[in-house]
Amino acid sequence: MGLSLQLLVPINGLSDERVCVKDSLWLDSNSVLFGHLIDLSESRADEGWEDIPERPTLSPRPIPPTTWLMINTEDGVEITRTDHYDKELTFLFASELAKLPDAAASSCHNRAVLAFMRALPFDTPVILMW
User: Fold this and answer.
1) Residues 63 and 90 sit within 8 Å (Cβ to Cβ)
2) With 50 as the cut, is the pLDDT of residue 19 above it?
3) How many CB atoms lie within 10 A of CB 98?
4) 40, 49, 95, 104 from 37: Cα distances, Å
5) Disulfide engineering: 35 pairs with which of 53, 54, 80, 98, CB 3.0-4.6 Å?
6) Does residue 122 lie in a domain region?
7) CB–CB of 88/82 below 8 Å?
């Protein structure tokens, strides 16, 4: 699977029109882990991957309609409301990400990223950048 996911932590939540990202962490590609966040039922059936959840266990919500994300890149500051697939950005609270099962994070790197997310205050929004 070629999906990748970057978790973005805004500095002051999602209440402003322009939201700056404080921390950014990439998750290694992992169908089982990502299956808890998006519908991968086709991959589950096509590839015979029984470990992928039948349906997502978490429900990311769209960022507020007046919010624009400001991300520092090598080319300067990018201001966007969409991910790399041109879909509207979504988010979960850190308390929701904490519910992801450890078994789904098969790599040491992914377990470390989830540990960081679990250490955040429970009401911290975490933006999903696919």
Assistant:
1) yes
2) yes
3) 15
4) 9, 16, 14, 11
5) 53
6) yes
7) yes
Task: Please tell me the pTM assigned to this model.
Answer: 0.85
Q: Which amino acid is at 17?
A: E
Q: Give the pLDDT band of residue 126 (cuts 50, 70, 90).
A: very high
Q: Is 95 exposed, middle or buried (0-12, 13-18, 19+ CB in 10 A)?
A: middle
> What are phi and psi for residue 18, nearest 5 degrees?
-110, 120
Is 120 strand, coil or helix? coil
Q: For the chain, how many structural domains are there in total? A: 1
**pLDDT > 70: percent of the chain:** 92
The proportion of the chain whose per-residue pLDDT surpasses 90, expressed as a percent, equals 43
109 is a domain residue? yes
What mean pLDDT do residues 79-105 have?
A: 90
Q: Among the residues of 7-107, which ranges form H helices? A: 31-34, 41-47, 94-97
What tokens were used for 72?
A: 């520092």
What is each CA distance from 129 to 10, 51, 84, in whole angstroms? 12, 23, 7
Give the range of the structural domain holding residue 89, as residue numbers without chain letter. Answer: 9-28+60-129
